[in-house]
Hints:
Number of domains: 2
CATH topology of the largest domain: Rossmann fold
Radius of gyration: 18 Å
Number of helices: 10
CATH architecture of the largest domain: 3-Layer(aba) Sandwich
Shape: elongated
CATH class of the largest domain: Alpha Beta
Amino acid sequence: MRKFNIGVVxxxxxxxxxxxxxxxxxxxxxxxxxxxxxxxxxxxxTLSGTQCDVVVTNYSIRxxxxxxGLHYLSRLRRLHPKVKVVVLxxxxxxxxxxxxxxxxxxxxxxxxDDAGEVVTAIHVCASGGEYVSPQVRAALACFxxxxxxxxxxxxxxSEVMRLYISGMTIGEIAALLKxxxxxxxxxxxSAMRKLGIRSNIxxxxxxLDISHGRH
Length: 215
């Protein structure tokens, strides 16, 4: 971290959100916006030539070939381990929130949090702390008593869900992963329970949300 200044790179595929973040942060004297990006390739290209302290990014961003926010964030953490990552999300499923936090991101905010929360998160995370906004903490608290829904998805469950949401059938996923159909079906059902998804209709809505970057 710079001694008197925090260098920030913004990454979001909605121009209006980017403009709102810029307006909120430009007035903060100890925060400098170094760049703003609308796709994941643009972000990774920027980070390869820019030394920054904090990246503020959407959970899922355009240009992410896998379509999986966790895969995108995992790659970001792996390639730039010294950069603090603050994630903006509209996701309220505890399993996803916990999975994001388990990747080692420094902060997580709800999409509708007050702009002041972003400023607080940047300062806390740049100083080496972790920040979870009140709205995100409330979402976690709602399911605190439910042990299963508090568990993050396993890597295999996440992969099965990603493939199923992409349009593949249970049989096709089983053939691709070289597993039995019953095993894949059980992993799909386990992931749905953890996510609080009760039907295939809800699962389709969940998939549409992810594909449109609403998380």
